[in-house]
């Protein structure tokens, strides 16, 4: 079955960096767009980065110039490099396959916790 396994989260000070990884299985990874999402306590899950099957990327203004999504099709893995982290970036981060301009289409994994605090 389709599975996504996120890793790389942790506690970081404001201004710090983290690199998240998401390994996919049970899916023809290379033909799908992939997205990174996050959900903070008491808030809805939100999309923070999209990468198409061809490598083009889309970010919301809240993370543009700070977050970079990339993918390695041979490893079936998508990455999220997060720089200049802010306390408001604190959330559980998830990845999923998606339609480029549409919703996530796979099951949700357990996510990885990112906490930005001094």
Give a short summary of the structure.
The chain has 118 residues and is an all-beta fold.
Characteristics of this structure?
118 residues; 4-stranded antiparallel β-sheet; single chain; 47% strand; 6-stranded mixed β-sheet; mainly beta; globular
Radius of gyration from CA coordinates: 13 Å
Sheet having the most strands = 6 strands, mixed
Order of helices and strands: EEEEEEEEEE
Specify the overall morphology: globular
How many helices? 0
- Look at the helices and sheets and give the structural class: mainly beta
Q: Strand sequence of the main sheet, in spatial order?
A: 2-10-9-4-5-6
Low-confidence stretches: none
Please indicate the percent range of residues in DSSP E strands (runs of 2 or more).
Answer: over 45%
Helix content bin: under 10%
Distance between the termini: 40 Å
The residue-averaged pLDDT reads: 96
Number of strands: 10
């Amino acid at each position: 079955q389709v599975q996504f396994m996120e890793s790389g989260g942790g506690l970081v000070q404001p201004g710090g960096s983290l690199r998240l990884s998401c390994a996919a299985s049970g899916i023809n990874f290379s033909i799908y767009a992939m997205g990174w999402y996050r959900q903070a306590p008491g808030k809805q899950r939100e999309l923070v980065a999209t990468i198409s099957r061809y490598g083009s990327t889309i970010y919301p203004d809240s993370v543009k110039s700070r977050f970079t999504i990339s993918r390695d099709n041979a490893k079936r893995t998508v990455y999220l490099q997060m720089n200049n982290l802010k306390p408001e970036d604190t959330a559980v981060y998830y990845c999923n396959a998606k339609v480029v301009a549409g919703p996530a289409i796979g099951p949700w994994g357990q996510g990885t916790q990112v906490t930005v605090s001094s």
